[in-house]
Specification:
SIR2/SIRT2 'Small Domain', 2 domains, alpha/beta, 31% helix, six-stranded parallel sheet, binds nicotinamide-adenine-dinucleotide, 11 strands, binds zinc ion, Rossmann fold, single chain
Length: 247
């Protein structure tokens, strides 16, 4: 536990980056907590276009299971602390998350950039129709794209998730960048929570924020790969640390 605090005043803007660690106390395993495996399949196999082409039923079973798991859990004290912080800061707050579980939104955060997509949307694997809300589980029959079918083409629907080897949506990165740039002349705080600092470009946000003059904080259970880039490091569980971090 820590007595560290981040002082918030009317000039403070806060950019938060979260990773799987913030959802661990809700019962969703981190990447490492799951041993990087699912039913003995390497995660890369169920979370890549190559894996989807090879075995779409397996990939949809994996995401159906993740939808069911995420639906069954609730946000924890760490998520709630960030929801309260957004209430306090309004437009001076932005939350970028690598999580796809939707727990930040469930906790009440609205200014959220889901950099790696979300479990709760589906899109077409071929056409560029907008991703749509979807809570279905697909265990046997594979979902096809109705829009493609109307043109006489056949295409599978896929989860709206950024898979290994895929690019992040440039609009998401632009939104984060715009927040950082709009912070010139104010005090910017960058806070990373529950992330191993291994997945780029999320792991580089700390450097981007620091270059823009941000004060940088990391709250993580274990040392992260990029923790040397942070000015302030708090080792602890986010559900225990975040509720008393902001004063
Ligand atoms: N909940 C989810 O949506 C979810 C779950 C697993 C993996 N993923 C994906 O896997 C990738 C892995 O990257 P990552 O950095 O997000 O996760 P990661 O699993 O690589 O790292 C999680 C980090 O959180 C820390 N941690 C664990 N419990 C914590 C707690 N209670 N409080 C604070 N820190 C805690 C660990 O020490 C670890 O460093 C991401 O791309 C992410 O999209 C998402
Ligand atoms: Zn389509």
């Amino acid at each position: 536990m820590t007595t560290s605090t981040i002082r918030i005043d009317e000039r403070t803007r806060v950019l938060v980056l979260t990773g799987a660690g913030i959802s661990a106390e809700s019962g969703i395993p981190t990447f490492r907590g799951a041993d990087g495996l699912w039913e003995n399949h390497p995660i890369e196999k169920v979370a890549s276009m190559r894996g989807f082409v090879d075995d779409p039923i397996l990939v949809w079973r994996f995401y159906s299971q993740r939808r069911a798991d995420a639906k069954a859990v609730a946000p924890n004290a760490g998520h709630h602390a960030l929801a309260r912080l957004e209430e306090r800061l309004g437009d001076r707050f932005l939350l970028a998350t690598q999580n796809v579980d939707g727990l930040h939104t469930k906790a009440g955060n609205a200014r959220v950039v889901e950099m790696h997509g979300t479990l709760w949307k589906t899109r077409c694997s071929r056409c560029d129709r907008e991703p749509f809300d979807d809570e279905e589980v697909y265990l046997g029959d594979l979902p096809g794209c109705g829009a493609c079918a109307k043109r006489g083409e056949s295409a599978l629907l896929r989860p709206h998730i950024v898979w290994f080897g895929e690019r992040l949506d440039p609009r998401d990165l632009a939104r984060i960048d715009a927040f950082v740039r709009a912070s010139r002349g104010s005090r910017l705080v960058f806070l990373a929570v529950g992330t191993s600092g291994r997945v780029s470009p999320a792991s580089e946000l700390v450097v981007h924020a620091r270059d823009a003059g941000a004060e940088t904080w990391l709250v993580n259970l274990e040392p992260s790969d990029n923790q040397g880039a942070f000015e302030h490091v708090v080792h602890g569980a986010s559900g225990a640390v975040l509720p008393s971090l902001f004063v």
